[in-house]
Amino acid sequence: MNNIRILTSTSLFDGHDASINIMRRVLQEQGVEIIHFGHNRSALEIVTAAIEEDVQGIAITSYQGGHIEFFTYVRKLLNDAGYKHIIIVGGGGGTILPKEAAALEKIGISKIFLPADGLRLGIEGMIKEVVRFCNYELKSFPKNKLPKLNFSKKIDPRYLSRAITLLQNGPIKKGVKKSKKDIPVIGLTGTGGAGKSTVCDRIVQYFLLANPQKTIAVISVDPTKRKTGGALLGDRIRMNAIDHPNVFMRSLATRSDKNSIANSMDAVIELCIAAGFDSIIIETAGVGQNDATIIDFVSIPMYVMTPEFGAPTQLEKINMIDYAKIIAINKFDRTGGLDAVRDVRKQFRRSHHQWSDEINSMPIFGTIASHFNDPGMQAM
Ligand code: B12
Fold first, then answer.
1. How many angstroms separate the alpha carbon of residue 99 from the centre of ligand 1?
2. Per-residue DSSP letters for 210-268?
3. Atom of ligand 1 minimally distant from the CA of 65
4. For 252-263, what is each residue's pLDDT tens digit?
5. Does the N-terminal or the C-terminal CB of the chain have fewer CB atoms within 10 Å?
6. Distance (Å) of CA 343 to CA 304, 350, 359, 366, 377
7. Average pLDDT for residues 166-191, to the nearest whole number?
8. pLDDT score at 143
9. Rounded to the nearest whole angstrom, what is the distance from the C-alpha of residue 133 to the centroid of ligand 1?
10. Whose CA is closest to 207, among 229, 171, 183, 225?
């Protein structure tokens, strides 16, 4: 089987996400990398994400009644951008009539799954059919042959996203040219669930406010499941600021259960620099006390943690405290937030040997990234 990546979402104005959540879990069990986009997403958002993520397929559920217009518009936007190859499948239970499903299949939607298909095939059977549709290899685009991009992106994401795919799927090429350009590369790492993606989203938001002309690439890594080979690439769902012409975002699976970064990380960074981005953020998969892999790839290592790290002695074991240039104690409003900031500042001062510096001058910030205008995030 090829490395299959599928974007899953519900349609615009549709909160019925139970069905797509079931389907994406079964897809992941079949070894597929899922970029889950949640619910209530516009056709343009879905198409932009599908192009940046370079997926083979998109699975959409639509229960809101506008399925003919919605699926048709997604197909049109993809075709206009040169992405006729992306498979679209969907479902919407009894809200989509068999004759409407047939009409959609005529305009290039590969399959609309009706309740009758569920009865005939079962969920696993339907998912096997989706995997069969999407099991094809992505090859490099003929040079400069794509149609003009019909939506605004300062840097055309299409060649870059395909180059990243080829890097991840092929043998790792050491030959990606090292750039001489020196741009800030932020490495965001930290424990799973600490809120790295939300912190990342805020950094992008503030970056765009402070540098309206500058571009930024965000590469988010999530773990590949050892048991199935599938992955839930769920960071995109947390990112609101990326819906912007100056931002490119790509989710990557580790493709190994031993790493917190993707197999092709350094080459992906070089590709983003060569594409002309002014800055890059790499977000790793969740890490434990030991993992500081990211520091070899970035110029500004950042660590995101929560106040629940246990006794202060636990801090002495965390490798990233020795290397981080900035630390966010996120979800700072939880019990023990202030104590956590003090303890981490002390540990930071010890491990960086900054004995003569004022404890409050350590770059440790209590943040609540999910809050609008959070003073901790702004200070950071
Ligand atoms: C569960 C449900 C809800 C839950 C949603 C929970 C959630 N988080 O998803 C709640 C209670 C919140 C809800 C709310 C509403 N709902 Co509602 N809801 C349903 C219900 C009962 C089931 C939908 C469902 O998830 N089915 C489970 C899936 C797995 O099965 P299925 O739909 O039969 O799909 C089959 C195939 O199509 C296929 N399939 C489906 N999708 C996909 C995708 C892929 C990739 C594949 C391979 C296969 C596949 O798999 C199934 C196998 O047989 C339907 C009625 C019904 N009985 O279908 C109404 C229904 C969809 N809801 C309806 C409405 C009106 C609403 C509300 C607007 C009500 C209101 N006034 O507030 C709100 C809107 C909420 C919102 N924000 O969008 C209407 C829509 C009418 C329309 N479009 O004309 C329906 C049809 C009920 C009705 N008869 O009036 N709803």
1. 19
2. H-TT--EEEEEEEPBPTTTS-EEE-SGGG-STT-STTEEEEEEE-SSSS-SS-TTHHHH
3. 83
4. 999 988 888 888
5. N
6. 15, 11, 10, 12, 19
7. 81
8. 84
9. 25
10. 183
Residue 64 CA: which ligand 1 atom is closest?
83
Q: Is the CB of 285 under 6 A from ligand 1?
A: no
11's tokens: 């349609």
- At 142, which amino acid appears? P
Q: In what order do the strands lie in the sheet with 326-330?
A: 247-253, 216-222, 279-283, 185-190, 300-305, 326-330, 364-367
Is any atom of ligand 1 closer than 6 Å to the C-beta of 89? yes
Segment 286-309, tens digit of pLDDT: 888 888 889 999 999 999 999 999
Residue type for position 287: V
Q: CA 99, CA 116: separation in Å to the nearest integer?
A: 13
Nearest CA to ligand 1 atom 62: 63
- Assess whether the C-beta atom of 59 lies below 6 angstroms from ligand 1: yes
Q: What is the pLDDT of residue 176?
A: 63
Q: Residue 175: its pLDDT value, please? A: 56
Atom of ligand 1 nearest to the CA of 127: 47
Instruction: Give the atom of ligand 1 at the shortest distance from the alpha carbon of 119.
Output: 53
Q: What average pLDDT does range 26-54 have in this prediction?
A: 98
Task: Kindly report, residue by residue over 85-138, the tens digit of the pLDDT.
Answer: 999 999 999 999 999 999 999 999 999 999 999 999 999 999 999 999 999 999
pTM: 0.96
**Which protein residue has the closest C-alpha to ligand 1 atom 52?**
118
Nearest CA-CA partner of 186 in 324, 280, 277, 250 = 280
Residue with tokens 């950042």: 302
CB-CB contact of 36 with 27 (8 Å):
no
- Phi/psi zone of residue 372: left (φ > 0), alpha (ψ -120 to 50 degrees), beta? beta
Question: What's residue 172's pLDDT?
Answer: 58
Measured from the CA of 20, which atom of ligand 1 is nearest?
43
3 vs 344: CA distance, rounded Å: 41
| SS3 category, 73 | helix
- The C-alpha atoms of residue 82 and residue 103 are separated, in whole angstroms, by 22
Instruction: Specify the residue with its C-alpha closest to ligand 1, atom 11.
Output: 16
DSSP 69: H
How many angstroms does the Cα of residue 21 sit away from the middle of ligand 1? 12
